[in-house]
Structure formats: C-alpha cells, structure tokens
Design goal:
Length: 344
C-alpha cells in the first residue's frame, strides 16, 4: 500500500478519494467483513470504511432505533454490542486492508473508540454527521493531529463551522450528506458541494445514500475530492443500510465512472491545438470557392462565395471579407476554389 495522501493533496492533484462504507453490512460477522475488504479492493476503491461501536461507551438501553429492523436485537444497545469486535480482531481487519492495498478508514462513535483507533495507528478519521456537534469527540480527534473527513447530514451550518475550526489545523474535508436511506434525487444536494468548499475553505465531497452510482459520478464533475457510498453484496440482505447501498459490482462501475470524469475534468481549457488536432483542423477546415460561373473582372460579393473542405486548397474561409468588393483576375467555374492569384 502506498503512503496515504491528504485529501487536500488529492484535491491539488485533481484526484478523488473513493470510500466504500461497509458500516454494519457485515452484521457482526468477522468473516463477512473480511470478504468485503477483498471485494472492495477488487472494485478499485481507495479506502474501506468501518464503524467502531463500543456499546458501553456510546450507547445505553434507552437509545431508540432509527428504524426498527432487527429480528434479534431487543434494543439499539444490543445491536451495537453485536456489531463490535475485539481490538485484536480490528487489528487484523486493518492488516487485511493494508495487504489488499486499501486504506483502513473508521468512524469512531465514542472517545473510547478513538483511543482504540489510535492504538491501531489509523491514518485519518471519518466523523459521522450525528457527531458533528459532539464537541468532546471532535476535540479528541483534533488532539490526535490527524486529518478528518466530516459528514454533515444531521448538522447545522454553525455546527459544521465549529467542527471545521476545531479540526482545520490537521486537515479537514467536508462532505455533503443527506440522512435519508435511500436518498431521492431531489434530496441529494449536489449544489452544496461548491457551497461547502466556498463557505468552509476546505476540500468538499459527497457521502451518498441514494443506492445508485449517478450522484457520485456527478459529484466528481462538480469538483468533489471525496466520494463515499455504502456497499453491500445484495440489497436484499439484512441490515439498516442495504437499500441505500451499492452492490460490489455497482461500486466497481462507480469507480470506473469516477476515474473517467476525474481525467475528463483535467482537460485543456485553453484550446491550444496539438499536432494531431492541427491535422484534423485541416481536414475539417474550409477553403473559399465560388458558387456559380463568374467571368474575369467580376466584383465579388458574399453571395458569390461558398466554403469547401479541406483547408489549404484556396483562400481560408475565415478571410472571405478580404475578397468581397475585389475583382476576379480570371474567370472561375462553379465550385472552383478561390486562390490568391484569382484576385485582382
């Protein structure tokens, strides 16, 4: 695995940091989580993202379900307990990511989870939108001196600004995010990407929950430096995010689309012509010709002229104004090219 680049460095290079969010798609199975790592690496992502849930530190039996979906978990606390792994297991997950050539990226949902991730030696942090206003967690992450990527779906503008200020010294990127699973097209909010970049003076991107590849690709065309989406093996799988996720194969298509647009947006804006384009310009260029038989001495008007391919066979069509009002030095047949020696 190559040395990690900051998101600011990705932005400067015109590249996009692509994140596959596994979240709880593993449903507490370490084996399935490891399967996701290999599948996502094959899809071409830059990072595989997990969520670090330490139930006792982040939750309580009073926490309600966002959406009751579980057949086996009586409370949200029970669910978080089932989604957690030991530190040794997380260390093995991180090693697997590194061996597969993808970054191990994680969202901590408690200060205890930050401490665990610091012991694991993570490169940077992802902060969920529900914790943007969690000053205790934000300040602990800022204290690590590591870059943070911040989602914004549940945060106000003032809360985002405060978090960015706290995290800016070590690098921060802010993602447009709609906390709707799945997100309808009219709720994706692609226009916010440019607004975020301008308002907070930092790299911007998209955390998408639409369950389609379109917003992520469009976001890159609009200048996103980070694109994140949930991944699943099948949208019919058990879990709260399945319907808002991309399948592994769809994620591979997303990556292809992002890499295509990533290159396309670097294109020449000065319209300078290289030798290949200059040759094509000659093929598609035009030379002046006359559109009817004309005698010697005829005074040319614009109505006498046509432009014909290729360029270089007569006077350039772009110079037609220079011959209007001048007389022919010799007769010309209909569709003859008009050359300098034909003008008196």
């Amino acid at each position: 695995m190559t040395a990690a680049r900051s998101i600011a460095a990705h932005e400067a290079a015109g590249s996009v940091f692509v994140v596959a969010e596994i979240a709880q798609a593993h449903d507490g199975s370490l084996g399935i989580l490891h399967s996701f790592i290999d599948a996502c690496a094959e899809a071409g992502v830059d990072a595989v993202k997990v969520q670090i849930h330490i139930a006792e530190a982040e939750s309580s039996p009073q926490e309600p379900f966002r959406k009751r979906f579980s057949y086996v978990d009586r409370t949200r606390f029970d669910y978080w307990s089932r989604m957690g792994f030991s530190e040794t297991q997380w260390a093995e997950v991180k090693r697997h990511c590194e061996a597969a050539g993808v970054e191990f990226l994680a969202t901590p949902f408690s200060v205890a989870a930050v401490e665990l991730l610091e012991r694991l030696g993570v490169t940077r942090y992802k902060i969920g939108s529900g914790d943007v206003a969690n000053a205790l967690l934000i300040d602990r992450i800022a204290g690590t001196g590591k870059e943070a990527i911040v989602s914004t779906g549940l945060a106000t503008r003032a809360e985002i600004a405060a978090a960015v200020d706290a995290l800016r010294a070590s690098g921060v990127a802010v993602l447009q995010c709609a906390t709707k699973y799945p997100t309808a097209p009219e709720d994706v909010g692609l226009a916010a990407i440019a607004a975020i970049r301008e308002a907070f003076d930092c790299p911007a991107g998209l955390s998408d929950h639409s369950g389609t590849i379109y917003p992520g690709i469009a976001a890159v065309a609009l200048g996103a430096s980070v694109v994140e989406a949930h991944v699943t093996f099948d949208r019919r799988m058990f879990g709260p995010d399945s319907r808002a996720s991309l399948t592994v194969d769809e994620f591979a298509e997303l990556v292809l689309g992002i890499r295509f647009v990533e290159k396309a947006r670097r294109g020449d804006v000065g319209k300078d012509l290289d030798p290949e384009l200059s040759a094509l310009r000659g093929m598609f260029g035009r030379s002046l010709a006359v559109n009817r038989d004309l005698p010697a001495g005829h005074v040319l008007t614009a109505a006498d002229l046509e432009s014909k391919k290729p360029a270089g066979e007569g006077l350039p069509a772009s110079d037609y104004r220079s011959v209007v009002g001048r007389s022919l030095s010799r007769a010309r047949k209909r569709w003859d090219f008009l050359r300098p020696e034909d003008i008196g």
